[in-house]
Amino acid sequence: MSYVDNHPPKKKRKKKALLIILLTVVLLIGTVVGGGLFLINHTLNKMNRVDKSKEVAIPRELEDFEPDERTQGMDDTLNPDQVEWSDIKVMKRDPNVINILLIGQDRRPGETGRTRSDSMIIVSINKKNKVISMVSLMRDMYVPIPGFSDNRINAAYAFGGMTLLDEVIKGNFGVVIDGNIVVDFEGFTQAMSQVAPLDIELKDYEASYLNQWNSGWNLHAGVNALNADQLLAYARIRHVGNADYERTERQRRILNAAFAKVKGMSATDVYNLVDSIMPTLTTDMSNSDIMGYVSYYLANRPAMGGDYRLPVSGTFSDEIIRGMMVLVPNLKENARMLQTYLYGRSVN
Questions:
Q1: How far apart are alpha carbons 132 and 123 in whole angstroms?
Q2: CATH superfamily, domain at 20-55+76-193+243-343
Q3: Residues 227, 232, 238, 243: is their CA dihedral positive or negative?
Q4: Residue 19: which of 258, 254, 262 has the closest Cα?
Q5: I need a surface site. Which of 64, 166, 217, 233 has the fewest CB within 10 A?
Q6: Tens digits of residue pLDDT in 157-193
Q7: How far apart are CA 339 and CA 348, in angstroms?
Q8: Is 159 helix (H, G, I), strand (E, B) or coil?
Q9: What SS3 class is residue 3?
C-alpha cells in the first residue's frame, strides 16, 4: 500500500509527535561524569519514572481503531474474525542480550496522558558479540492486543502504557523487553537541537517533499546538514517513497548519525546534552540499571550493528480491516527471524 502524496503536510500534522530518544545519550552519560556517582544519580534523577506495576489500562469500551481517510468508500479486504494467529514461544532471558524499547509518543502540544506510539524501536545490546542493533516495529502492524480487540500495534501504548506494549511484543514476537524509554515531540526537538546539524543524504523526492514543508529550506538531493526542525520533518516523512518502510529507515539513520556525532563531542557538550534532555524522558529503568548498561558500553565500546524492521518483507499481507490500512504479519515467521537476528537462535 505504498503511495505518493504530493501535497505539503497540514499544520496539525506538523505538530504530531514522532521519534524516539537517543539511546546514545544514555549510553554515553558515563563520559560526562568521569568521576562522580553523585553527579550521575543527580543527572539520571531528572528523568520521569514509571512504576509499571501501577500502570492502568483503559476500559475496553474506550478502545478505538482510527480508520484511514483514504479508505472512505472502500470495502474491507478482511473481516477481523478471518485473521488467524499462531502461538508464539517466548525466548528465555539471556544475560548477554539486553532489549530496550524506545517509544516515540504521538502526543501533541497541550495533550496529556498516554497517546499512540508513533515510533517503536528495539535497541538490542548483544554483549557476546559486542554489537548494538536497532529493530523498527512498523506502527501499522495488525496484532493481537491482550484484553482488547486486534488493532494496530501503536494502539497498545495508548491503551495500556509500557506494560501492555511490552506484553504485545513478548506475546507476538517472543522477545522480552528489559526496559523502556519514552519521548514525545518536545523531547525530540530538544534533543535534536543539541546535536544538530546532522549530515543526512536526501533523495530527490525527499528534498522536494521537505521543501514543500518549508519553502525557505532549499534542500537538495545529496548530503544536507539538517537542523532540528528539518530532522523532525525528515523522520516523519511517510507519504513519499516507500511509505512507512522508508520512514523507519530514516529514523534509524538519524539515530546512527546522532550516535556518531555524540561520540565526537567534548565531555562538557555531552553533559549539557544529557542534562537538557533528561527531564523530557520517561523510563521504567532504575539508575542502577542504566549505569549497568553505561558501564558495559564504556568498557566494551560495542559497534553499531545492522538495521532491521518488522514485519520482514514477504512475511505479511496488506489489508483493510475496520477501515484501517494495516500490515497483517505472519507472526511465527517474524518471531523466528527477529529472535535469530537478536540472539543467533530461535525457539519458533
A1: 7
A2: LCP protein (3.40.630.190)
A3: positive
A4: 254
A5: 64
A6: 999 999 999 999 999 999 999 999 997 666 667 777 7
A7: 8
A8: helix
A9: coil
**Rg of the Cα trace of the chain?**
20
More confident call, 10 vs 119: 119
All cell numbers assigned to 74: 472502500
Q: How many CB atoms lie within 10 A of CB 209?
A: 25
Distance linking the first and last C-alpha atoms of the chain: 28
CA distance 120 to 116: 10
Task: For strands 97-105 and 142-143, give the pairing.
Answer: unpaired
Using CA atoms of 184, 185, 188, 191 in order, give the dihedral in degrees to the nearest 10.
-110
pLDDT single digits (tens) 67-111? 998 899 999 999 999 999 999 999 999 999 999 999 987 665 566
Q: Which helix (H) or strand (E) holds 105?
A: strand 97-105
**Closest CA relative to residue 115, chosen from 69, 68, 183:** 183
Contact 132/341 with Cβ under 8 angstroms? Answer: no
Sole residue written with cell 558500553: 297
